[in-house]
Amino acid sequence: MNFAYNNLYAESIHLTDREVPVNQPAVPFPGGTGGRRGSRAALSGAAAKRVERPAPLRQAVYEALIELIVNRTLVPGQHLVEVELAEYLGVSRQPVREALQRLQTEGWVDLRPAQGAFVHLPTEEEADQLLSVRGVLETHSARLAAERATPEDVEQLWELQEAGVAALAAEDVEGLVTANAALHAFISRLSGNTVLAEMIGTVDRRVRWYYTPIARPRGNDAWNEHAELIKAIAEQDVEAAGRIMTEHTGRTRQAYHERQAVAES
Amino acid sequence: MNFAYNNLYAESIHLTDREVPVNQPAVPFPGGTGGRRGSRAALSGAAAKRVERPAPLRQAVYEALIELIVNRTLVPGQHLVEVELAEYLGVSRQPVREALQRLQTEGWVDLRPAQGAFVHLPTEEEADQLLSVRGVLETHSARLAAERATPEDVEQLWELQEAGVAALAAEDVEGLVTANAALHAFISRLSGNTVLAEMIGTVDRRVRWYYTPIARPRGNDAWNEHAELIKAIAEQDVEAAGRIMTEHTGRTRQAYHERQAVAES
DNA sequence: ATCCGGGTAATTGCATACAGTATGTCGTCT
DNA sequence: AGACGACATACTGTATGCAATTACCCGGAT
């Protein structure tokens, strides 16, 4: 049953965040085990992306598990048995455990001592709180983006907007979600605040997990609001950008609850 | 050299966040390995805290490492060799590795594939960004707290305030930092948003790491601002609470930079 | 002298083995 | 029949072993 081994590499080796493969600018640190790193002056300018590091298995496992959770193969509340995951992914328990550690701190699974990992089971209250936090972070990011966006950035924003509208017209739910994520991610990057952008990244990913089911009906309004937002950013209108983003995320939050209400009836 | 083994248990077994030792309300999950849990009707009402779970070593290691980082035993940029840490803490490499995973996602260390863990080396820019995000989160939390605080809560706030002022008078830097953390943590809990509170918790802890050196000079003003903030919360004045917190965190941020400027001269 | 090369030591990454703990089941006693 | 208790099983937690990669060191060539 370990067909997935290849799959794993073929599919999810886009080592996105974290796990920095770069070598730091050789800072001479005080304590340390002993300076083992020599200084190599040249080549410092070009931001050359080091190719093909031996991407650790834990990274691949981590991403594979998120994928399995998001697409509901692993359902909330499910007990994740380490050896099962390991066999399924064709690795040993070790990288699985390391991935689980990371998944825990990011809220995807809960680790119960001596009992193991369980796919996180979000309550409606928690989802609401997450959406609330998301609103605050996104608003801040929108304001900063409005301050700093260049015309080229705005150009890119419009392109992302078009992609989203196209997906909307094509009823491409998958594409819609992706486009939405891309737009918000780009704005967060425009903010120039890396810490903020990373935080939004993880929060949004979780939001998307809870929220995917309602992406469709909200689509129309959402992308109109996106257009408004881009306009505000283009005009560097900080207040407007912040206000629109607050409303935008607020409506998303509301849509979530309405959908919940329907789902329970 | 493994005297630290006892230390480790004696000192840092206050399993704070995460690692939920509670047994969930027995949700019947669809997939799962198979329902192994029986239902026990009685005793369900009383919220009895299950005592003394076998706290995993990784948890203790995690906390020990944070302590070592915060108190500068492990200096930023330092290469953390797994077997050294393991020997020092009196455990094997395994729990160390798991702790490092978690430390990475929370920004304490950087993991470079095939090279190991390095204590995170914060740039001034990053510290600024973190302080910026902190301001936003804390402001949100202050507003929510103002909405919901009961007179009893306000009472507690004043007690925390007194503790801080006392530490200030006694020139107790350690106590000052602790009191400050306690006050902010309490407010974040008052917000009623658990997700927000947790996020503030981790952000604040990192801020404290960067910021501890300047806690003293800023102390006086900070605690005056705290008093203002509590007043606003007591009057349930949401706008004022938010504004004061924004200013408060903004000043902290400014103080950080001024201190940096001094340090570099 | 500097740059390039091979060789060596050190360290990570992964796998496996063992021990401890919790759960489920069956039998027995009241 | 219900409840308690011992046994068996499954899974996690921890330790150890092995292979692969990396960084360092030193000698030789340019």
Automatic annotation (TrEMBL), chains A, B:
Keywords associated with the record: DNA-binding, Transcription, Transcription regulation
Matching Pfam families: FCD, GntR
UniProt KW Acyltransferase keyword: no
Record-linked InterPro entries: GntR_C, TF_FadR/GntR_C, Tscrpt_reg_HTH_GntR, WH-like_DNA-bd_sf, WH_DNA-bd_sf
Top-rank taxon: Bacteria
Gene3D superfamilies, A to Z: GntR ligand-binding domain-like (1.20.120.530), Winged helix-like DNA-binding domain superfamily/Winged helix DNA-binding domain (1.10.10.10)
All residue ranges annotated as the HTH gntR-type domain in the record: 55-122
Name this polypeptide is given: GntR family transcriptional regulator
Annotated region (Disordered), positions in chain: 26-48
DNA-binding recorded as keyword: yes
Coiled-coil ranges (or none): none
Gene Ontology MF terms in the entry: DNA binding; DNA-binding transcription factor activity
SMART domains, alphabetized: FCD (SM00895), HTH_GNTR (SM00345)
